[in-house]
Amino acid sequence: MQKSECHGGVQLRNRVTGNCDQRISSSTQIKNRTTVQRSKSSSSTSSPESTRKHPRPSDKLNPKTINPFGEQSRTPSAFAAIYSKGGIPCRLVHGSVKHRLQWECPPENLPFDPLLITLAEGLRETKHPYTFVSKEGFRELLLVQGAADKAVPLLPRLIPVLKAALAHSDDEVFERGLNALVQLSVVVGPSLNDHLKHLLTSLSKRLRDKKFKEPITSALQKLEQHGGSGSLIIIKAKIPTYCSICC
């Protein structure tokens, strides 16, 4: 009887020991799997790109890698640099309804060379206040008495600058260039005809855009109006679809 009880006690201890061993084994397997998963997760987040300290040479060609607060973004444009140094004799006056320019002296007393050309170059600006100063300054300078006599000698230097504005990809820059061209035409009249062909290519390309069809057509009509019959021949040669105001 004692042997039977002893034997039964041994079997019970063996089953308990076996259960404990199984729990320890399964717990060890779970810990191992967790460790493996963590190591995989850490290896995936520590990719070569995240751990790389030195950029590749090709990164310099990718605009996304350029620091927007770096020196290259702080370099002002030529017009902005001239304006900040006082090279443009006017300043922007902010109003509650609209802005205006305050000239240091009457515009009619100012030399057009190189001021008018500098303002024309500013038409390609895309930031305030340079956009307003350039377009309003150009317009007001052409309104002074005797503007034609001062502007006509500058046409060979003005036309390439206006051409660059008309060929610009920014729509607002193009519109400022178009308005400036019309303003110049009003002042210099037929004197613009000799240079007109250099400007019409950009207008012809923009005519394909429906939103510019009406303003460009209106501008061409004003160019014809102030340039006379000679301008019509030039316009029709570059833009055959143009309808004369005389039709």
TrEMBL record:
Matching InterPro entries: ARM-like (IPR011989), ARM-type_fold (IPR016024), Parkin_co-regulated_protein (IPR019399)
Where does the record place Polar residues bias?
14-32
Report the Gene3D superfamilies cross-referenced here: Leucine-rich Repeat Variant
Extract the ranges annotated as region (Disordered).
Answer: 1-72
User: Which residue intervals are annotated with compositional bias (Low complexity) in the record?
Assistant: 33-49
Looking at the record's lineage, which domain of life comes first?
Answer: Eukaryota
The region annotated as signal peptide is none
Q: Where is the composition biased (Basic and acidic residues)?
A: 50-62
- Protein name (record): PACRG-like protein isoform X1
Lineage of the organism:
Eukaryota, Metazoa, Chordata, Craniata, Vertebrata
